[in-house]
Amino acid sequence: MRAATVITPHGTTAAVQDGTTWRALPAADLSALLAADVAWQPGARLADATPTLPLPRPGKVICCGLNYGDHIAETGRDTPSHPTLFAKYADTLTGDGQDIRLPAGVEVDWEAELAVVVGRELRNADQAQARGAIAGYTVANDISVRDWQRRTPQWFQGKAWDATTPLGPVVVTPDELDPEAGVEVICRVNGIERQRGDTKALVFPCATLLAYVSTFTTLRPGDVLLTGTPGGVGIGMTPPALLADGDVVETEVTGIGVLTNTIRLA
Amino acid sequence: MRAATVITPHGTTAAVQDGTTWRALPAADLSALLAADVAWQPGARLADATPTLPLPRPGKVICCGLNYGDHIAETGRDTPSHPTLFAKYADTLTGDGQDIRLPAGVEVDWEAELAVVVGRELRNADQAQARGAIAGYTVANDISVRDWQRRTPQWFQGKAWDATTPLGPVVVTPDELDPEAGVEVICRVNGIERQRGDTKALVFPCATLLAYVSTFTTLRPGDVLLTGTPGGVGIGMTPPALLADGDVVETEVTGIGVLTNTIRLA
């Protein structure tokens, strides 16, 4: 199934794709649907539906850095023995088609990523339990403010600007997508491809990450885990590249879809 | 005023201290009271009331590391030009009197801190706006799992174990407490004093921290900011000390109160 939170003339609703149209699911959005733990029983066909941020209220948005060999190489680090994790809040997220607004003068970079959506509560889970708790996969771009990220040893302040991490447009269930078999994670800036990685190269695959995180904190339905970015970020280029006002960032994961967001620096 | 969330025979309620007793405030806890933005009008006297975690559901718990000169020195770092920030989630918090449960074998350390509670929404705030938005101050201990903290460059996985950061027992309003004039932050382990710092020595004072964070993300009523720990943490000792099963950690900020928590490693 391909699920989303869609905007309709009557408000938002969780919805499932049915060919080229959408059918309502019984909750106002996917955060509410996953929290309610109800069957994804498609209801009425929606005449007018546009996907928006699928998960407006994850309790946790946990990110893994340094998870693709080519990106680890471009940062000059060694392959890590454990997942490098940092946190965002729900406020950091935004939807497909939204402008990403940041102040003029900051150094903005792209990081296309596969995101995992948690479907069941997990604590001290093993790999099999973690795999079974995956509700689906979606697309994210961990847009980063590099000068703020570099100000201190901790990346948080370069990673948690409000409404700067696009997520969506749809959540694809595991029966339709297998990142361990490989899906491609792609970033284009103004139509030029800058990143292309394959999730089968992840140092720490999705279920490994969820199980690891669940060692120290509870994951709940609707929580999101970003799995890291492949090589090709702007600061890895020679000379380093940054996003400019008006740049259009397309973030794609094959089999899921494309996020299109415009950078606005003012 | 000295406010808390208290457990009564009829459930929890926000409450304000009145001499040696408590009077109810019109919300189930301080998170709800601050979110509702109602006057703190004391109601009925409570015959049986015990303070618990004052803020059970902060949307954000943001921590500043490296904010006291003696602690910066014991970590071997230079005085930072910007606040070193990292994030926790509400799940990380626990209340006065609660056991802190962690698996046997991890390296557990103490970090007594003053915590600031946000009372009004802040975004792109200046210092005066940030100061005016402080609802109050409370006590925290950023109990840290050092081996996990050191596994990667990002501290999050050593700082975000569920129910390991005690917070409380009361929130003291700014008319009764002025950390810029100086309050002492103290940690005792099994009755032996290990930390004593003064908040007037903070590299980044409370209002500075709130204003800085509000540059990149919205702070809302009930959000919590931990302001860093003074010198004297276990890993700074010669030889380094760790908390053991059964150790009693007392965390005190003068003018606020004391948190007492027992470490349980199993």
Automatic annotation (TrEMBL), chains A, B:
Q: Does the keyword Hydrolase apply?
A: yes
* GO terms of biological process kind: carboxylic acid metabolic process
Matches recorded under InterPro entries: FAH (IPR051121), Fumarylacetoacetase-like_C (IPR011234), Fumarylacetoacetase_C_sf (IPR036663)
One term of GO molecular function: metal ion binding
Name the UniProt key words of this record, in alphabetical order.
Answer: Hydrolase, Metal-binding, Pyruvate
A Pfam family name for this chain? FAA_hydrolase
Name all Fumarylacetoacetase-like C-terminal domain ranges.
60-263
Protein origin, superkingdom: Bacteria
Q: So what family is this one in? A: Belongs to the FAH family.
Under PANTHER family, the record lists: FUMARYLACETOACETATE HYDROLASE DOMAIN-CONTAINING PROTEIN 2A, FUMARYLACETOACETATE HYDROLASE DOMAIN-CONTAINING PROTEIN 2A-RELATED
Quote the protein name from its UniProt record: Acylpyruvate hydrolase
Source organism of the structure: Xylanimonas ulmi
Q: What is the lineage of its organism?
A: Bacteria, Bacillati, Actinomycetota, Actinomycetes, Micrococcales
